[in-house]
């Protein structure tokens, strides 16, 4: 007995020396790749004068040639012994990139780190036109001009503060009472903004579809603008999407025409933050999402919903994963996925 | 003796059960953040008509407001028990992003995965204007137009094929004899291209300096266009940059005016692929880098060099980390860093 005890101690000590305490992630591989997209050739464009050094004469460059465009980028972290049956794909929202999932404005690690610790292999993607997915010349390839989200729009649209509560001076901004957003780090959050186009939805959908086809079976957690793409991909590959978590999704296919029978085998969960009722814009979005969810249930599917203030969790913004209590919210999602039998 | 042997076997078996076989990475945390940059306010710009759905009337959008611009993005993977004394910072080259280090065109994991396995905590960044660092409206914030690298330029400039050996049809392209580049995956590599500007060098340098100040002490491995930024940051923080590996660097500060005494305590290694002499452009760059290296040595610094064909490793392109034998090249860098006393 005494010998066994000593053996156990020795094993634990040696295990610690080997660096395999349970607080570490056991990672098999990290990497990334691009999925989808197409080749295009530009021709007949005039040479362009490009400025390299302000004040110096511009250089002439020929903009014609072959390009690869409209691919999606994804980065993966594969666990050696995942506790989930399928990897988790994290899809960002509008005007943002995969950074949404990697970090919080106060510098703490984001939901990617949380879900890795919870036992999921995790993929974090940048949609067409965003971040490492890259963007293409317009109007020749992308059909319109990009637009850039001002901080005021993010502050108010993401329900951090009320309409007209934004001010250029950080100290003069009035956040909603009891907000969970780390308000002092709002400008740090604004660095995550990425220009977007209004005309790339078909290319973005095609790349997401190719992504699901390549990587899944999987679970998708999607935020905001990404919802529409995720519902459509689930409808295209209902056997490959084993669950879909719609975090503050702002869009979906038309609930009056969508074929819910195709996705009734894909359990879905909607997660909402606080203060939806204060903003008519969000009230309309939530109502549309409720119609979609209701039709899914009516077709025999699982369409669950967590409205955080209804379960006593107050002050969450549209950027749930950035909020100070975001790990608590992630925990609810992890629990729901376990309830669907998606963990070992 | 027999008992000790049994104990050792038991420990190894239990360690395997705990999932800490030496083939797994022991990761303490993954995350990312933006560093540097500045706040700008745009005002007085007219409303813009933006197209969301081709065919439908455009929407009006006000482009004025506050923005965060010119930050650098970095992602980190921190090992629980690194074998290196300092983390490794991987800096990409021109027209590319941090993806350079994450993957190879054939889909295999890249140098980031290699160096993590070799015991380094690794940071992979996107410079100002690239990837997840994001880009800003021009000409109001960025002072010129972006440019896009055609595939022909990458094929020839990166020494995969000779001048005029590129063809739109993959089967009609003629690579240099014995190239190590995975030629069949060239179009997949081209998806990594990111638009660039010629006028952002001061902002890029400022962000890199802020990055080194925040994250280091560290070792920097830098590719191509990034070289100039890394040499300058090392000069600004010579006590924080513990070594600098210049992989096919295309630029450096002026060797006639650079203060080499400041960086003589920063060991530096230049790594070059094959076929430099076939391209006058690369011959000139290599000569300039040799002048820089010579002046460093003359000032009492360590300026080592590996020209791969000189040590019997042939066929490497400008994109060493994409080549089929790239792990062999990474191994030489790892050995050199160990020789500088930078591993435990």
Automatic annotation (TrEMBL), chains A, B:
Source organism: Variovorax humicola
Q: Which domain of life is it from?
A: Bacteria
One GO MF term on file is:
hydrolase activity
Show which residues constitute the signal peptide.
1-28
Key words, A-Z: Hydrolase, Signal
- Classification via SUPFAM superfamilies: alpha/beta-Hydrolases (SSF53474)
InterPro entries annotated for this entry?
AB_hydrolase_1, AB_hydrolase_fold, Carboxylesterase_BioH
The AB hydrolase-1 domain sits at 219-260
Would you tell me the protein name for this molecule?
Alpha/beta fold hydrolase
